[in-house]
């Protein structure tokens, strides 16, 4: 694997021992290594560029602390900037509003939306909530069946959607049914397409405006790296997301997509998917991203 950023920076700064201040030249040499580390972690180039500029502005002219080498000092500034960018706190689902509330899941086909709906149902049940699953993808009967099966496995009721129904009608009727069943959180598994398209976005906007969900979460596949960033940007522009769930993080240890999505959309990553099983959903710890990127 790659050398950790810390050890690479140590190399760059070794020759500078004894110099009191971080100068433009040594900061720039150090930042070349930082840029490489960011790009190797698949951070979006726009994000990497801005990040480097911010670190440079802070580092220039700083006195090197007595306890640190110049390399350690740059790593410290980089760490602080990464933490500032990612936010420090865990972000949970937004479930505010009149019961039952709705959480809308959106995303491209294959991103892991249906699986994540099941995972969130398990998560909510553990927290003492009563989730209700709603298949709102009327274009793929297999998606409806998949959710019914998942619901059966975890003992969570599923609305009996049919392909002839309109998604808004499904969500409306599901709300009444959930209320009758004593459930408090509806999880809406909406339709996805293979690629972004205007028709899909229009349908999602229509559902959002009718349902007024307490949270709208994009499920994005972390393995798609830079694409996940562009996808998040488009969904956020159309729907004003409440947050993002990065699925398939078990296949992507680099974390660049998480950093880029946060930097570009400003929206929090709320959870990560770390496997196909319904228990494999974890809260997203922003502080851990810094160490996974910096090594
Ligand atoms: P949808 O089309 O967006 O509803 O996607 P699915 O939920 O059907 O998921 C597509 C594929 O990704 C399935 O094979 C899932 O088992 C798999 N998948 C979903 N989430 C994860 C995850 O966090 N890790 C891994 N390794 N696979 C996942």
What is the overall pLDDT average? 89
**Distance between the first and last residues' Cα:** 10 Å
Largest sheet: 7 strands, mixed
Strand portion: 5-15%
As laid out across the biggest beta sheet, the strand order is 2-3-1-4-5-6-7
Order of helices and strands: HHHHEHEHHEHEHEHEEH
Shape: elongated
Which residue ranges are poorly predicted, with pLDDT under 50 across at least 5 consecutive positions?
Answer: none
Global Rg: 22 Å
Bound molecules: guanosine-5'-diphosphate
Helical residue percent band:
40-55%
* Counted beta strands: 7
Class derived from helix and strand content:
alpha/beta
Number of continuous helical runs: 11
Describe the structure.
The protein is built from eleven helices and seven strands. The protein is α/β, with parallel strands linked by helices and 295 residues long. A seven-stranded mixed sheet has the order 2-3-1-4-5-6-7, with helices on both faces. Helix 5 runs parallel beside helix 6. It binds guanosine-5'-diphosphate. The site of guanosine-5'-diphosphate has 18 residues, from helix 5.
Characteristic terms for this protein:
alpha/beta, seven-stranded mixed beta sheet, GTP-binding, 295 residues, 11 helices, single chain, binds guanosine-5'-diphosphate
Q: Would you kindly provide a brief summary of this structure?
A:
The protein is α/β, with parallel strands linked by helices and 295 residues long. Helices cover 50% and strands 13% of the residues. Helix 1 (5-14) runs antiparallel to helix 4, helix 2 (24-40) runs antiparallel to helix 3 (45-59) and helix 4 runs antiparallel to helix 11.
